[in-house]
Structure prediction request, 638 residues.
Amino acid sequence: MKTMVVGGAGFIGSHLCDALLANEHKVVCVDNFSLGTKENIRHLQKNDKFTLYETDAADKNALDEVFDKTKPEIVYHLAANSDIQASAVNPDVEYRNTYTTTYNVLYCMRKYGIKKLFFASTSAVYGDKRDVILDENTPNLSPISYYGAAKLGSEALISAFTYMNDLCSLIFRFPNVIGPRLTHGVLFDFIRKLQKDGSHLEILGDGRQTKPYIYVTDLINAIIRFTLADDVKRTGVSLYNLGVDGETSVTHIADMLCEEMGLNAVQYHYTGGEGGWKGDVPRFRYCIDKIHKEGWKAEYTSDEAVRKTIQNVLNTSSF
Amino acid sequence: MKTMVVGGAGFIGSHLCDALLANEHKVVCVDNFSLGTKENIRHLQKNDKFTLYETDAADKNALDEVFDKTKPEIVYHLAANSDIQASAVNPDVEYRNTYTTTYNVLYCMRKYGIKKLFFASTSAVYGDKRDVILDENTPNLSPISYYGAAKLGSEALISAFTYMNDLCSLIFRFPNVIGPRLTHGVLFDFIRKLQKDGSHLEILGDGRQTKPYIYVTDLINAIIRFTLADDVKRTGVSLYNLGVDGETSVTHIADMLCEEMGLNAVQYHYTGGEGGWKGDVPRFRYCIDKIHKEGWKAEYTSDEAVRKTIQNVLNTSSF
Prediction:
């Protein structure tokens, strides 16, 4: 099948390209390299089933040209600003890179009659509902970050475009995703700090911020299975919380990291407060019954995903 | 108080300008006259508390200039595309006139430290949930029109901007609004058709599309009361379904119109099907307990609002 991955050179997008190619599909990769990197897809450039367009999906005319040339059968839309702290400083980033890219993808799908969409959404659409176990029917979605707002707005667009144009759309609300090619987040902050000074570690907040972390290959397996398996016969919008067993606290991440780095006398200094930064949801828990009922389950628990990523990051050359 | 009404020359916006001025407030009216008209605000132009900016709120720099010059204490954001049938043909209209205007208003409020916002939302955010009595906790909002999607996306933006910048935001989800200065909708279609041929009336759908209609002065009274009364001490986002007693079917609108026009032998021809057009929600009902508990209630029922509007429209010179 001819597939398009918008944001295909990013952390998650590049793993999706790998998996689609491994499954013998053609991949049209669209990326503007604002967060994605050439490094992430260098190993794919010689694959004749892989085509790269260095195109900004926020530029409607440019994206339209790529659709016109390539006419994919399914679009995986993973382009977004993924750095909540960055857009807290300038919300334009979300308006442009998260919401407008979604609008443009849907506009082009409508124009070229493309019916199948996968969209990467997020737990951030729920807002701060730390005392609720979040399921797909949780009401009053109230994002507290510009990122969550742009993703919820994108879901709303998908709802209307799907109805108006008879699309078949799959939305996964991701938890925190980690694994090889990750570029930012608490783990990286900690590693950088510990490499400067292996005796002390400043931890934003009270360290009790606790979230589920999914390993990227688990996530990709779910996307492939739900979009390409032969028995997939969905219509309209299907939406799932994508989750794993367990959650991991920030302090536990620090503990695992120190252990893997062989540092056993690190003093933790907490900046205090419940959240790491404004717009961050300090704790959330997913109900993942809906996706489990479909027969899918993550291989790794949250703690295992974190430890695997730590080992992976410490083994790469850049650290 | 210095107020800004974005979309202040529109049907609802101009009534709001009237009411704010009647309450001795200053009004900065921003409109691009895409749907609003000079006619709607002609009577205000000599009022020295009224200032008009012919500015497109979808143009961020232009809107920024108006904020910079005027620095209002409260912003009423009513600019939007209100014609769902028009945007079904070209969804760009909603991206630009409904979503982007909201983003720009919030961007400017953040930049200039303005804390109070009123936002006109809509029943269309719920999508087609015809068998549910819609209250503010109804889950799974799934708009089926680009209009509903852009409004739900706007609500999501307001949620994040309010949290991040300590705003005080009030959102009313309007039902159908009618009254003087209305420019389009089923009533107008019917009048035009009956003026051409008073013996037959084509009715889109099966005529059983049934919605609550609120008279515009009732709506304006609620907005004024909830944003400007001395006892208003809200923080964060407050959201209400704004509704009336009863609902009115399309066939009943035709009946009332024929009666008021003195036509008593009109043959109705139904085009059939449940909805008037794709993206139209054929029936909805609101639970309005939440706003009633605050002590507000509409003066007119839905049927009364429709009949009053019919009488008003038939008495104006343009018909």
Q: What stands out?
A: DSSP finds eleven helices and 15 strands in chain A. The longest strand of chain A covers residues 116-122.
